[in-house]
Amino acid sequence: MQSNRRHASRCRYAPRMSDDAPETASTVPADGAPAALNPAYDDPAYRTAVVDLLGGLAYSELSAFERLTEDAGSAPTLEDKVALAAMAAGEFTHFEDLVRHLRRLGADPFAAMEPFHAPVDAFHAHTAPSTWWESLIKAYVGDGLAADFYREIAAYLDTSTRELIIATLEDTGRSEFVVDRVCRAIEDDPRIAGRLALWGRRLMGEALSQAQRVAAERDALTALLVGGVDRPGMDLAAIGRMFARLSETHTARMSTLGLQA
């Protein structure tokens, strides 16, 4: 019984962002796009980089919508089904905002998303959950890592684009939902904590592998990292520190669940 109480004391929802992630409130209008295109878009290389970034984020949001919809279908209670369906609706709204902005830039949203099919789909193929609890951990840990990665890159963008991305990455309620459900499950059966901790480590490894693949293969995103707008880029050491911060944030999420990273 004391073990259960120990878990309960550690399982408190405490969302945490990277120290470098912008925390400003979004000023993006209801149509999901800045009021006017930033002069930075006059640079073709910068515009290409932003289109690439938004294309990757849009596909990630679409994928999140699909998976949350599937999870809602297998939810154990009606309350869980409604909660996950609402989260899925929020992700699709984010997706529509990104598509709208891509079109405003004169880009084809589907062409912009195409290069990200393989890495995103590969991550999901390698991390297919086998239980309800694994699907919840994936929604919290896997999607959280992806959001952290995009926030890191957004720090090198012009203000209006950065605010659009930060608004897109707003939590749709999944963090609090997952923490509550997983912590309750661990209290009921502490034996599942070990399995879920191993699952979280696997998600971390796969997510970092795919993030590094995207950063290495997409020249436009690499250009943003090594030299952004209105600020210098990162050298190799700084990029290494970025991935270290992603790892630290993952550890914090796992700790919130009462699991060892």
How much of the residues is beta strand, in percent? under 5%
- Rg, Cα atoms, Å: 18 Å
- The portion of residues assigned to helices is over 70%
**Uncertain residue ranges:** 1-9, 13-35, 228-232
Question: What do we call the CATH homologous superfamily?
Answer: Ferritin, core subunit, four-helix bundle
Sheet with the most strands, sense and barrel status: none
The average pLDDT is 79
What structural class do you assign from the helix and strand content? mainly alpha
Count every beta strand, where a strand is a DSSP E run of 2 or more residues: 0
| H/E topology pattern | HHHHHHHHHHH
CATH fold naming: Ferritin
The CATH architecture can be given as Up-down Bundle
Give the N-to-C terminal Cα separation: 24 Å
Any idea how many domains? 1
What is the top-level CATH class? Mainly Alpha
Shape: globular
List the main descriptive attributes of the protein structure presented here.
261 residues; mainly alpha; Ferritin; 11 helices; 70% helix; globular; disordered N terminus
Question: Overview of this structure, please?
Answer:
- This protein is an all-alpha fold and 261 residues long.
- It has one domain (40-256): Up-down Bundle (Ferritin), CATH 1.20.1260.10.
- The chain has 11 helices and no strands.
- The chain has helices at 2-10, 44-73, 78-104, 109-113, 117-126, 132-154, 159-168, 174-188, 192-217, 219-226, 236-256.
- Helix 1 packs antiparallel against helix 8 (174-188), helix 3 packs antiparallel against helix 7 (159-168) and helix 6 (132-154) packs antiparallel against helix 11.
- The two termini are 24 Å apart.
- The relative contact order is 0.17.
